[in-house]
Amino acid sequence: MNFIGDIKSDLQKIKSTLPTNVTLVAVSKTKPNEDILQAYNAGQLIFGENYVQELVDKQNSLPKDIKWHFIGHLQSNKVKYIAPFVTLIHGVDSLSLLKEINKQAQKNNRIINCLLQVFIAKEETKFGFDYNEINSFFNTGENLKYPNVNIVGFMGMASNTDNTSQIKLEFETLAALYKSLQQKNNFNILSMGMSNDYDLAIKCGSNMVRIGSLIFGNRNYSK
Length: 223
Ligand SMILES: *Cc1c(COP(=O)(O)O)cnc(C)c1O
Prior knowledge:
Strand order of the largest sheet: 7-6-5-4-3-2-1-8
Order of helices and strands: HEHEHEHEHEHEHEHEH
Helix content: 25-40%
Structural class: alpha/beta
CATH architecture: Alpha-Beta Barrel
Bound molecules: pyridoxal-5'-phosphate
Radius of gyration: 17 Å
Distance between the termini: 27 Å
């Protein structure tokens, strides 16, 4: 799929290729409100952000029916800023973070939906739990200790490589883990796939894709 450069057309083109069971998160990090409004006016209500301050500013100034997903690495001391409104936190990568989300959710009288981030890539740089940690988390009942958190599934990022069979293997392994725990724990979200690999992720069982640059163009971090 190629990026055309018109947010509405790019969004619609991507949406037309997604199976009906797959939810699109439009990743708007670093992008201005005007860009988000273009997508919003074309019918997109779910947006993903990586930076807490940026997310809070956008939530304050953009339409209130937008559903904001936090998709980046979340620092525990910043959970309080997004706890009042965030719809889904994708990147829960430690028990201490989970504990803090539970605490802030309680303060806000909310139950916050979360995805545990599972480490599937070969690189050392990606955050997340490994497979053994995930299994023991659910098998030991640790998952029941956070009443104000609703763990609805997993999120994973594949290795940043051109090796398609490597990426496929990583997605398939996470999908298998998801399936093995899905029924017992009422999971309904497997978040994997970005602009470069979402087709493959869907083939491997993803039902939530996080797409940024294919909708909004490349990001400029130097601004
Ligand atoms: C930035 C980001 C995306 C979107 O990446 P694109 O390649 O622009 O689609 C998806 N997921 C996470 C966790 C991200 O940080």
